[in-house]
Write a structure and sequence with these properties.
The protein has a single domain, classed as Protein of unknown function DUF192 (Jelly Rolls). The protein contains 4 helices and 10 strands; from the N terminus they run E-H-E-E-H-E-E-E-E-E-E-H-E-H. With 140 residues, it is an alpha+beta fold. Strands 1-10-2-3-4-9-6-7 form an 8-stranded mixed β-sheet.
Length: 140
């Protein structure tokens, strides 16, 4: 199932729902087990309290135009998206105690540091979100 919208319009914001996110322009996979933070409590918590993100993991915060990494324990890559899932801005290896914003963004992906570089993801690329395989949901 190819989703062009955002979780709150597709009913995808169920607790165990995960996505695979790809960059067709580059032929790469940014995450195979992407969680969705589409409620106030989930967006506020974000990745706080975690020790890190494994390769293939990530968090899609919807809606979101800015993030902070206060109290985080590890750096992350940030990919800001518009409503059509086109990349507005990328930030690599954002360390703890930082702020980042893109006021024209509708959502943001938080990914393991190095993902942007490894996938050659760039501003202007359009991402695709697919339902993750059931085993990907169990891996997280």
């Amino acid at each position: 199932m190819k989703l062009k919208g955002h979780p709150d319009s597709s009913g995808a914001g169920t607790p165990d729902h995960r996505f695979k996110v790809t960059n067709p322009a580059r032929g790469t996979v940014l995450a195979s087990c992407l969680e969705v933070a589409d409620s106030g409590p989930k967006r506020n918590k974000g990745l706080l309290g975690r020790e890190g993100l494994a390769p293939g993991e990530g968090l899609w915060i919807v809606p979101c135009e800015s993030v902070h990494t206060f109290f985080m324990r590890f750096p992350i890559d940030l990919v800001y998206l518009d409503r059509r899932n086109r990349i507005k801005k990328v930030r690599s290896a954002v360390g703890p105690w930082r702020l980042s914003a893109c006021l024209s963004a509708h959502s943001v992906l938080e990914l393991p540091a190095g993902t942007i570089r490894a996938t050659q993801t760039q501003r202007g690329d359009e991402l695709e979100f697919l339902q993750a395989e059931p085993n990907a949901a169990n891996a997280g």
